[in-house]
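pinned: reference chain
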Amino acid sequence: MTAPAQPGADYAAAVAAPGRTEAHRALDEVRRPAEVLAFMGLKRGDRVLDYFTGNGYYAELMAQAVGPQGSVVGWNSESFGRNPEIRAALDAMAGRNANTSFISGPSTALSFAPASYDFVMMHLVYHDAYWESARFGLPRIDPNSVTQAIYRTLRPGGTVAVIDHVANPGRETRAEVEATHRILPETIRADFERAGFVLEAESQLLRNPADDRSVNVFTPSIRGHTDRIVYRFRKPAR
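pinned: its structure tokens
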């Protein structure tokens, strides 16, 4: 007997769900999460990995969207996992979303169970594969180790959602990330395709031609309004 079909994910309802913090709701206008998740094709019942979840903005939205038959695991690096404010926020989030859990581990030895997820979210974090910071406890890593770990843990046919700040051309990637926390879209694409992913679609949802792309993304005048690439990658089904 085949399992009954899951109803479609209601992205707008996920955004409107009670319990979300006011700080997260304040980000919705510039992040457009309902439209992003619709474009990415997140489904009811999906098993989701939110890679470098931070304080769980997308983890909670996706937990609502996938419903009780789905699940969301948010991963942070060890240093972020030890942060008491982040830990408290994620504990509270897991308390109000029974299908959500959070883990942390060394970024130098990423280890996720093979073929465990249907969908992986990487929201404004892939550029950090090129960043090292003693202050934030992030050692230098090989970006290939990130894309390969994601490839292994995604089931065949699964989706990777990649959203990141767009850089201007002309500077070496690590230097650009250190200076502005931006990355060239073609670098993202090349890295994921080298790991075996196929670029399935690109969206213009978060593009901003008014962003000159030369300033750090945390600069108050541009923060939250950067020019952002939105990619949907697919792991081949066979």
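why pinned: Confidence is low (pLDDT under 50) at residues 1-5. The chain has one domain: 11-234.
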